[in-house]
Amino acid sequence: MPEAEFFQKLEAQHSQNLPFVAYRKPVLSGNSGEVKAFLQQDDQLHYSDDFTECGFVFAPFDTSEKAVLFPENASEKLIFEQVISEEAKFSDTSQKGEIPEEKKLTHVKLITKAVEALKAGAMEKVVLSRKEIVALDDPNPLKLFKKLLKIYSTAFVYCWFHPKVGCWLGATPETLLKIEGNRFKTMALAGTQKFSGTMDVEWGEKEQQEQQFVTDSILDDLEKAGVSSSGVESSAAYTTKAGNLLHLRTDISGKIPNSKFSPAAALAKEGQIPKEDSGKAVINRGSAERIISAVHPTPAVCGLPKEKAREFILSEENYDREFYTGFLGELNLQTNVQRSRTRRNVENLAYRAVKKETHLYVNLRCMKIEENKAVLFVGGGITKDSVPEDEWQETVNKAETMKKVLLK
Ligand SMILES: C=C(O[C@@H]1C=C(C(=O)O)C=C[C@H]1O)C(=O)O
After folding, report:
1. Whole-angstrom distance between the N-terminal and C-terminal Cα of the chain?
2. Which of 398, 400, 403 to mutate to test the pocket of ligand 1 (most atoms within 8 A of CB)?
3. Superfamily classification of domain 3-406
4. What ipTM was assigned to the predicted interfaces of this complex?
């Protein structure tokens, strides 16, 4: 579909106050990327019960709250191919968008309190965040989405709207979980410094340690979800760029086990679902739920130990994160896999395999649009070695990702 038609349809959807999401996955090679959209046909609010549904999911940070779903069978799907040109430059925000001193004092105070708790051994890491409000001249979310598409080609870029929930936009560098068939991928992303023209940088002890916490904890959570460490590969930590920032990243991948931990097989045995449904597809869908619940929220956005950090966040942050540090993306979508047309494959019709794919991202570098203002959400990992002033500056740097498309 031509780009102009894609955006006309989205504008029409938005002006009718109907739910939609438009998004593009990171473009890591080549010079084009697919921009897709789900346009829900009415304004009903659907939820995902257990991540076995098919569609686009938008989940909050707080796991006690429900994840919103745009069901695939209740949505029109659109797609266009975006040609990636050299990353467009928008305003240099470093001198603009003054933040009131009081905001800084409040955040520094919160971090100081956390460092004391960390030094006393209450936790090993806690991720603390804040929100920041920027007035908008033009709050049209689709215009902002177009700008995000242009400047952040290696991020997952999205614009999500539901009249009963709100409007969110973001450009996140972090995958929560990708599942293709019986293979999964995830990442441990933490540690931040400003990009100053080179990827060849040194990382301090604090950053290396906080990133290692994330890697270890994800591996641990996977093991608890039935993915044994022998089936998991993880890379060495390396430097990756996200907008004007650098992070430390470890890639983790592996095979999802079936049978033993399969809720589907168990249900079939108990006669709760038909025997034929205890097959692989169902098994893997059950596994998706188990893995999502095991890893989210990772210590990249919550902390360690997870429950203590979560309690600290909910009681001390003093605002509602809503969907920031939640996750979003494609859930159990069918993709056609073309296999070679060998005689055996042709006879077995195996050249037209259908795979289910789930691709979820952590909702970071994001904002909520409310009438004539944007509410930005930014945070960072705190350990006992954190310097409160530096942690404040890190949130200022992170806020630039969204400010680049907001400020003139
Ligand atoms: C919490 C955020 O980012 C996360 C925290 C990071 C850190 O503490 O260094 C780095 C990347 C993200 O995992 C955010 O962008 O708001």
Report:
1. 31
2. 398
3. Anthranilate synthase (3.60.120.10)
4. 0.99
